[in-house]
Each structure stands twice: as C-alpha cells, then as structure tokens.
Design goal:
With 387 residues, the protein is an alpha/beta fold. The chain has two domains: 129 residues, Aspartate Aminotransferase, domain 1, CATH 3.90.1150.10; 198 residues, Type I PLP-dependent aspartate aminotransferase-like (Major domain) (Aspartate Aminotransferase, domain 2), CATH 3.40.640. It contains 14 helices and 14 strands. The strands form three sheets. It has a seven-stranded mixed β-sheet with strand order 4-10-9-8-7-5-6, with helices on both faces. The chain has a four-stranded mixed β-sheet with strand order 1-2-3-12. A three-stranded antiparallel β-sheet has the order 11-14-13, with helices on one face. Helix 4 runs parallel beside helix 11 and helix 12 packs parallel to helix 14. The longest helix has 20 residues. It is globular. It starts with a helix and ends with a helix. The structure holds pyridoxal-5'-phosphate (PLP).
Length: 387
C-alpha cells in the first residue's frame, strides 16, 4: 500500500464517522417520471429531466444514427482533426436558439464552467470577480486561485454596494451568477442585473443550467427574454434537454477567444457524434414544447401552494425546483427515507451543499409528473412532518 493510499483510507474513515459516506446506487428507467431501484418502482422527484426527454425515442434514434454514420469517437481535439461538419452545424443551431452570434460545445456543464471561467480570468488576471454566494461548484473550480467578491444570494443591492465600493480600483469587472438556482429554484432579476452590469461596465456571465429548455421564449432560457443583457450564457444539455453536453453562447469574439485560449476546450477530445445527434434532436423538440413548460410551471405553483398551506417553507422558489426546507440534516434525511418507503424519491440536501439549518428536500418536478403525483408527494410530506 502506497503512503497516499493510507491517507485515502483515513479520509474515507472520517467521512464514515461523520455519517456522510455516499454510494452509487444503480437505477433503471421505470416509465414516465418513474424509476426502478432495488426491485421497486418509485416516482422520481430527484432527476433534472424536467421535460421528460431523456427517454424520448427521437433523441435516442438520432444519437444512434449519427454514431453509426459518423463513428463512435471524434479521434482528436477540435483544433486538430476532431471538428466535424456536425459540430459546426449543431453549434450554429445552438447560437440561433440562444439568439447569440456564436456558440461552442463542451463535454459537460461542469467542465465548461471550470474551463471557461478560468480562461476569462487568464485574459486579465486583475479582473474583479463578483459572484453570487450560491454559485455552482463548477464555477468555484473555474475561479480557483482568484479572489471572489461574493454577494449575498440574489441580493442585487448588495452586489451594487460591492461594485460601488471598488469603483476606484483598476481592472475589468466580471459578475457571475445563475438564472435559476439549483438548490432553491429561485431566479435572478435579469433586467435589473443587466442594468447594474452596464452601469459598472461589468461583463455578465450567466449559468442557465436549470433555465435552458424550461424558461424563456421557446425554452431558450431566461436570457432569451432579455437579449443582449448577458455577455456570456452557458447551459447544459444534461437536464431539460434530456441528453448530455453543454454550450457557451456569446459574441463571435468571445467564442474565438475560447477556441484559442480555453485549455479545457483545446486539450480535450471533441464531443462524439452520438452526443451531437442527441442534441440536434432535442433542438428539434424543445422549442415546440410550450405546453409541457406550462404544465411544469403549473405543477410547481400547485406543489408550493400545498406545502405553504401546511406551513412548510419553500423559500423563494418560482420554478420547477421546489425546496421543502425542514432545518436539520437528520430531519431531511429521515423525511427522504420515509418518502422512499412511500414510493417517492426525493433527495435530501444537507450542509455543506446548503447553509446549516436549511437542510431540505430538493423536489425537482417534471412535465411528465401527473397532478396526482404532485398531490401524493404533498400528502406524504405533510403527513410525515406532522408525526
Ligand atoms: C448551476 C449548474 N451549473 C453547471 C452544472 C453542471 O452541468 P453538467 O451536469 O452538464 O456537468 C450544474 C449541474 O448540476 C448546475 O446545477
């Protein structure tokens, strides 16, 4: 056993002692908004497949068709021989979908944020980096090595105060936030944020991982309803799009810079044809899914009303992500375990993912949940918390 192995074992033992050991559990498909686990079918309130597209036949078929026609792998990075006509065609479709000059594909949203934010900071290391307190872990990875000036979550007054306090300092300004926050389901006030960014000559980086496909004109995200406000918009195809991969959209100059300076793009093999085919099919489907988006919004309104009527805090949620905030980590874990007995899968989210005292169930709704599914969930949460 190498010395490092002993450190790994010690670290794992510490995780065990804190009761925080996580394990991978195999999960199978179990029908619309259902999944199979350990021989049982559960109603799934944990996945991010908001439009129910992950098992859509058109996505699976086109993915298979492009793999059969173009191959299983791309063979090299995009700048060497990895760029196919299909990459350029899909990127042109994404740019049109987002109303942007240009777009670039990445293998995942995590990799994109980690690589793209780092590349922006590299262009001007004296950049003042303003970040919402609740930005995703991948954005922290991108900001590594740089001081973040963090504003209270979605508190734009606080952001303005911080920007004003540094008005005399040198260096460009960069604001990083999300359109829909993954643990709270609340959204940013993009019109006001845009005005603040303009007033302070700040570049606005917007993560639309949870907004893409769900919000905005044709599901193009919140930014689609506020053209020109964000300088850079990223999103992922792994959630509402039901497939995999991620995009960054913005000006031609921004995308050209990333092609030339973003290490996570340059030194990574080009996304494979199967991924491109799946995204291409989802781009055919998503803009036409206004009815599914309306159903999803209605389900959220109904669930929040049911939980509020029972005195359960759902925070500032206004989207398909509804937290049921219960307080202590042990309470959230007990509630999730109880719901699993009832046939309902809902993830318990605890510190450090959320602040202490705000442990919760993160309820992720889908257009394919029925009204009865939502009522059953609300009934069981209310009954279990009343015990
Ligand atoms: C806000 C946010 N950004 C980025 C990501 C990463 O996206 P992906 O799952 O495609 O890696 C996630 C995924 O959980 C997310 O919630």
């Amino acid at each position: 056993m190498a010395a490092l192995d002993r450190h790994l074992a010690t670290a794992l033992a510490r995780i065990d002692a804190r009761d925080e050991r996580r394990r991978l559990v195999a999960t199978g498909a179990g029908g619309p908004a259902r999944l199979d686990r350990a021989g049982r079918t559960l109603i799934d309130f944990s996945s991010n497949d908001y439009l129910g597209l992950a098992r859509h036949p058109l996505i699976a078929e086109r993915s298979a068709e492009w793999a059969l026609r173009l191959g299983g792998g791309s063979g090299a990075s995009r700048l060497v021989t990895g760029t196919l006509d299909a990459h350029l065609a899909v990127e042109a479709r994404i740019a049109a979908f987002k109303g942007a000059e240009a777009a670039l594909l990445f293998p995942s949203g995590w990799q994109l944020n980690a690589a793209v934010l780092a590349a922006l900071m590299k262009a001007a290391p004296d950049t003042l980096l303003f970040t919402d307190r609740l930005i995703h872990a991948s954005l922290h990875a991108g900001a590594a090595g740089h001081r973040q000036i963090r504003f209270r979550h979605n508190d734009l007054d606080h952001l303005e105060t911080l920007l004003a306090a540094r008005a005399g300092e040198a260096g460009p300004r960069l604001i990083v936030t999300e359109s829909v926050f993954s643990m709270d389901g609340d959204r940013v006030d993009l019109a006001r944020l845009g005005a603040i960014a303009r007033a302070h000559d700040a570049f606005l980086y917007l993560d639309e991982a949870h907004g893409t496909g769900v919000l905005g004109r044709g599901g193009a995200g919140l930014s689609a309803d506020h053209p020109g406000v964000a300088d850079l918009v990223m999103g992922t195809f792994s959630k509402a799009f039901g497939c995999f991969g991620a995009y960054v959209a913005g000006s031609r100059a921004l995308i050209d810079y990333l092609v030339n300076a973003c290490g996570g793009f340059i030194f990574s093999t080009a996304p494979p044809p199967a991924m491109l085919g799946a995204i291409d099919a989802a781009l055919d489907l998503v803009p036409a899914m206004d009815e599914a988006r309306a159903t999803l919004a209605t389900r959220g309104v109904h669930l929040r009303a049911r939980l509020a009527a029972a005195g359960i805090d759902t925070g500032a949620s206004s989207t398909q992500i509804v937290p049921a905030i219960v307080g202590e980590a042990s309470d959230a874990l007990a509630l999730a375990a109880g719901l699993a007995e009832d046939g309902l899968l809902a993830a318990a989210i605890r510190p450090p993912t959320v602040p202490p005292g705000t442990s919760r169930l993160r309820l992720a709704l889908r257009a394919t949940h029925t009204a009865d599914d939502i009522d059953r969930l609300a009934d069981r949460i209310v009954a279990r918390l009343a015990r």
